[in-house]
Design goal:
The chain is of the alpha+beta class. It folds into 2 domains: 3-9 and 21-34 and 193-316, FdhE-like domain (FdhE-like fold, Alpha-Beta Complex); 36-186, no CATH class. The protein has helices spanning 41-52, 56-75, 79-89, 92-98, 110-127, 134-145, 148-160, 167-186, 295-298, 303-311; strands spanning 3-5, 208-214, 227-232, 238-240, 257-262, 268-273, 278-284, 315-316. Strands 1, 2, 3, 4, 5, 6, 7 and 8 form an 8-stranded mixed beta sheet that branches. It is globular and about 50 Å long.
Amino acid sequence: MQYLAYGPRGTGPAPARPESRHEACDLGVPVRPSQGGPGEFACRLLRAREIASTGDRSRQAMVLHLAVLEHQVGRTTAAHVVKSAERASLPAAERRAQGRYPLLALHRLVGAVVSEIDRAVRALLAALPTGLPAALEQSGLHLIGATADERRRSVSGWLSGDGPPPPASAFWIVVAGAPPLELATRAVPGPSPGEWGRPACPWCGGTAWLSLLTDASGAQAGTARPCRRLVCGRCAGRWAYPLLACPACGERDPHRSRPYALSGQSWVRIDACEACHNYIKTFDLRADGAEGVVPFVDELVTGGLDRWAQERGLHRRGRLAS
């Protein structure tokens, strides 16, 4: 693999990046559906199928993800899932007016997520009778056999971030919990940059998992002044954040931000912070080759960047299960 370092002291050609440290611009235009925003599981499923059709290697990487998305698409219309999402989103306007975050009443989702775990485990065991990793299968069977109180504690830990479950258990909770949580997020308008400019998700309090660059209107055309959105790894919410600030430690010195991209894939890169040694994966939706990219899906087939970063002692925050 050949990697190019972009930015200060970097080698190789670099995409245009503004030199000024402007604050995140107003993102009043809704996220385009083609980008797979909160609750858009069908969009992600279409993209996953498209990637899987490109070859055996891509298909193998997508087998589990396809089964997860097919299950989640079907659960977004379940009456109790929709109802719990509505209940979780009800206090958002009052909380926003009072400056209280996160905006969602996350505790109102616990019951729905607990009840969805059995369905998720049984659906994936049926869809992938020999394709589930042993640790995931064992964890799923353990969750099915757990008491309601044990499952409630695990789900509450995932939603709050306090005492999150082990990764194998968190996988099943994400599969079960993403539909109601993302539907709740989608129902609540996001705050403007003037209201919220922190690295934590304003909807659920989660940590940023991805970063997106678009132009000021939200479209994918080129521009000299990109807007940056962070993407929550828990609820898929997207909010504005200063272009050169590190989401992990807040460092804003542009000389301490080092973008790295894989040669031939200018639309995706990692932004590494020399201050805290964390990185975030960034999708430049203005770049050539980014047409049709759905970040939550395409990030699964750009693992070469993650391996390269981790081999160099960099760390990634923001997602409890993948």
